[in-house]
Structure formats: structure tokens, C-alpha cells
Amino acid sequence: MSEQNNTNDCLMSIEHITKEFKLSDGNILRACNDICIDISKGKTTAIVGESGCGKSTLVKTIMGIHEPTSGRVMFHGKDITKLSNKEKRQNYRHIQMVFQDPATAFNPKMKVKDLICEPLRSFGIISKGEVEERAKELLRQVDLPEEFVNRYPHSMSGGQRQRVAIARALALEPEVIVCDEATSALDVSVQDSIIKLLVKLQQEKGITYIFICHDLALVSLFSHKVVVMQKGTVMEQLDGDKLAESTHPYTRDLLNAVFSVH
Amino acid sequence: MLLEINDLDITYGDNTPTVENVKLSLNEGEILTIVGESGSGKTTVIRSILGLLSGDGHVSKGTLSFKGRDLKTLSLKEWRELRGKDISMIFQDSGNMLNPVQTIGHQFREYIQLHSDMSDSEADAKAVEILKRMHLPNAENILSSYAFELSGGMRQRVGIAMAITFHPQLLLADEPTSALDVTTQAQIVKELMQVVKESGTAMIMVTHNLGVASYMSDKLMVMAGGRVLEYGNARDILTNPQSNYTKTLLASVPTIGGKRYV
Ligand SMILES: Nc1ncnc2c1ncn2[C@@H]1O[C@H](COP(=O)(O)OP(=O)(O)OP(=O)(O)O)[C@@H](O)[C@H]1O
Ligand SMILES: Nc1ncnc2c1ncn2[C@@H]1O[C@H](COP(=O)(O)OP(=O)(O)OP(=O)(O)O)[C@@H](O)[C@H]1O
Ligand SMILES: [Mg+2]
Ligand SMILES: [Mg+2]
């Protein structure tokens, strides 16, 4: 990456995002509460915290899937929570997401090659004739056999589907990739090679990752910044390699709950 | 012996078998964990016990017996009586098995009444009781919610709650805690072990989390490429792995303070 340490390296700023849902009983649930995070360019920002604390809601707001109740997300000088549908579509050229449940994010009638290359096709980057070759190449990157190009997602294992979702997000080489539990269905050995791939692409192409993950050890080894959330609120933000040294009681609780092998 | 499987081969379509030569046995109150490579056949093995292989999967060789009954000869009616009550399953992505257009409460009540003659109010009370055991805040509210209104980890806990409702004799759990943060995971792991202790339930769990496997299991099976590489006492295998694959797997477990990727 170019030497540019004199200026601000903040690529995206999440500013005072609050998101409320109206529940069926009429009550209001505040899933995200005044969240402020600076996402650094070419770095990995991890988000951790207990189930239901608002991690997926936050990233879905960044992706324009939810409209925030208040606050904004600035990216290239624009508030991306207020885009028109057409602008949103254009924005996906720059930001891609791997969803928490890849099974639900896929059209079950599409073959793997078409799923993987759909973003490339929709931006007119490759022709129909190039789909097969490109899909094979992307499958290889995520340690899947080339023959999977003609499979359907339902006849694959959970971890294989998850890797198809990763391959699809990588296809466009976007500036930002948002990963919501993107490696939770992988065995640790495959996970290791996927993380190495993500890091390699980050170093070569400057890709920025926003990475939601329950595995604190993985987060501590791979992220540049960790954001710890509880009940919709950011509890602390710290450097990835400093996670284990945190003195915040909530972060300590998380660290102490990890099961070790021996 | 509660469950006994010998020389099991499973085939999708008429290809070569996907899984070969599986042998295992389980007594009541025992916990067996299956770990291994993504795509190695873990889900396939446990689904075969419930007679619920996906697509055109079928048992092409071997025997499966549950309480002395040959599972291959059961009629559809006998399967229906067994499933959900004597043997129940927490599916990988169990959250996605929920019907998106019905409330959780509606589905839970239907499930309970399929296997018992409880009234609506008794069934609802039962559902609330079990959801509370899953450490879900505000269980009554969960019943009136739709699946999309819950977080990934909340949906997963609804799936676990349903599967343990009737204290099955055999519980098949496919990645039951993969969507849970470490603190919730610790609570759920302890609840599952409590079910085993209370009711003498035998459990086969698939997980990628070797820490959880180590904490819970009596027996361990390691799979790669459709084959069983190791099977036996969990502690022995984890402290003294024989196959190279198991060694690689153990070495790939991320640990805090380990070698950073970046
Ligand atoms: N569309 C929705 N309507 C109503 N409530 C919602 C909706 N989406 C999420 N919620 C609620 O918002 C809260 C935060 O959910 P979210 O999915 O963001 O959690 P999370 O941190 O991603 O949790 P997990 O780790 O379990 O995936 C939860 O209480 C959830 O029930
Ligand atoms: N319906 C199907 N038709 C054809 N092949 C299938 C089908 N379901 C699974 N497979 C294949 O069978 C193999 C074993 O799949 P299985 O789901 O059992 O793996 P797994 O060990 O559970 O993996 P993971 O950890 O990724 O969930 C995989 O290569 C998968 O692609
Ligand atoms: Mg989530
Ligand atoms: Mg599986």
C-alpha cells in the first residue's frame, strides 16, 4: 500500500448509529444505541459481544438493509444509510457482505458458478462465457474442488456453502468486505487457510474487513481493532493484539468463558 | 447398548460412497463428539441415524440399531413416532429450519402437540419454561416473534429448546453452539450436559470447537475425507493424537497469545 501516513486513514465512519425495532407487543427494542466506530482503511475491525447485542443489526444498517433510527455512516463523503436504490446497488461494487446464514442468502435454484459470479455479471465485469472459468478459480481460492461449479447449494455441506459465500464476496475485489460469522461453520484447519487468504488479499489489495466473530482467540490474532459490544452499546474499543490484556469487566467475562482444549 | 452402528456406508445418488466404514456405539448418558474436516461427512453420519439424509442420500451398506431395533427396516409411521421424541436433532443452521411466516410460539406449540396431548396453554407454558433454560431473555416475547426478528444465536437456541423438550433418549446435535458467543455458549453447553445428566440422554454432537469437544465428550471421532481417522476415548485422542490430520487440527486451534496473522 502507498505511504500515506500523514492523512487520516479512516475509510468509513459510523457516527451515532441508533436502531430501534418496534416489537409485536408495541414495545420498542433499541438494538443499537449511539454507536460510533471509525473503520480504518486496509485494516480489520472485529466486532464481538454476546448473542443479541446488535452486531448483525449494525452491519445490516451499514449495508442499507435497515434504515437507522438516527445517526449516519460516512463513506467516500456520502452518508450511505440514505442512498437511493440505484445508488445502493452501485455501492455494492465497493462493499460486499458475507451473511451469518449463507443458506438463506442464496437462491436455491442457482448453480454455484452463477451464485459466485452473480456480482461480477451484474456489474458487467465478465461475460457469460467467462463465468465457469472464473468460478473455478474462486473455488480453488477457498479450498473447494472445481467440480462444485455445477452443484446446487443444498447438496453441499454447511462449511462448503459458507466458503461459496466467501468466494462470492471476494469476486468483485471490493474495498470493504463485511463478514458476519463468516468462518463459524469451518473446521479450524480450513479456517486457518481462509484467514490466510483474507490477510493476503488485504496486504495485496488493501481490502478493509469488518469482521463479526465469536472466536476471541481468532479475533486477537487477525484483527487490528476490536470493538466489544453489550446490549446495543459499545463497551470498549482496543487494538486487536491487546484484547487479552483488557481490564474491562465485560471483556474479561468473555475471555474467561472460552473453553480450552487441554 | 443404546445405539450401535457397524460398517456404515452412505452414498448420494449412485456415485462412490461419500462416507465409508463408520462404526460407533453409544450407551445411555454418553456423549460422543464428531470433529473433522468441513465436507468430511459429519452431518451425513448423524442425519442417517434419523433417516433424514438430504437429497438422494441413502445407506448403501452396514447396520444401524437403536435399542436393538434395526433402523433400516422401520416403516414411515414408526419413524414418525421415533423422531422428535425418542431421537431428536438440532440441525446445523437450525435457525433456518423455522418457518418464516409463522410465529415461534405457533411452531413450538405445534411441535409439542404433535408428540403429546397437552392443551394450548400447557404447551405454551412448557415452551416458555424451556426457552428460559436456554437463557433467552423475555421468553414470552420470543414466542410472539417471527424468526427474522431474532438474532442468529437466539434462533439457534430456539432450535435447541425444541430438540430437548421431550428429554430424548438420543440427542443429535449438529453444531449446536456455532452461532453463540462464548458466554452464551458456556451456558448452553452446561444446560445440554444437565439434560444428559437428568434424563440419561445419550448425545452425538458435531462441532468445530475443539475446546467444547474436550469439555463435553466421553468419546471422540475424528473424520476427514469421508472416513473415520480416530475413534475412542476423547481425552486419549486429544492428548495423544495418532493421525496426522488430528495433529494438524489441534495445531490449527487459534489461541490467545498465539502467532498473529497480521
Ligand atoms: N427485524 C427485526 N425486528 C425486530 N427485532 C429485531 C430485528 N432484527 C433484530 N432484532 C432484535 O435486535 C436485537 C439484536 O439482534 P442482532 O441480530 O443484531 O444480534 P447479534 O448481535 O447479531 O446476535 P447473534 O450473535 O446472536 O447473531 C435482538 O434482540 C433481536 O431480537
Ligand atoms: N444432498 C447432497 N447431494 C450430494 N452431495 C452431498 C449432499 N449433501 C452433502 N453432500 C456432500 O457430501 C459430503 C459430506 O457432507 P456433510 O454435510 O456430511 O459434511 P460435514 O462434515 O457435515 O461438513 P461441514 O463441517 O462443512 O458441515 C460433502 O462433500 C458434500 O458436498
Ligand atoms: Mg448476528
Ligand atoms: Mg455439517
Structure description:
The complex is a heterodimer of chains A (262) and B (262). Chain A has 262 residues and is α/β, with parallel strands linked by helices. Helices cover 34% and strands 26% of the residues of chain A. Chain A contains nine helices and ten strands. Chain A has helices spanning 55-62, 85-91, 102-105, 112-122, 131-141, 158-171, 188-205, 216-222, 249-256, and strands spanning 10-22, 28-40, 44-49, 70-75, 78-79, 95-98, 176-180, 208-212, 225-230, 233-239. In chain A, strand 1 and strand 2 (28-40) form a beta hairpin. The radius of gyration of chain A is 19 Å and the shape is globular. The N and C termini of chain A lie far apart (40 Å). Chain B is of the alpha/beta class and 262 residues long. Chain B has two domains: 1-83 and 217-255, Rossmann fold; 93-171 and 181-202, Rossmann fold, CATH 3.40.50.300. A six-stranded mixed β-sheet of chain B has the order 6-7-8-3-9-10, sandwiched between helices. Chain B has a four-stranded antiparallel β-sheet with strand order 2-1-4-5, with helices on one face. In chain B, strand 7 (170-174), helix 7 and strand 8 form a beta-alpha-beta unit. Chain B starts with a strand and ends in a 10-residue tail after the last helix. The mean pLDDT of chain B is 95. Chains A and B meet through strand 3, helix 6, helix 7, helix 8 and helix 9 of A and helix 6, helix 7, helix 8 and helix 10 of B. Bound molecules: adenosine-5'-triphosphate (2 copies) and magnesium ion (2 copies).
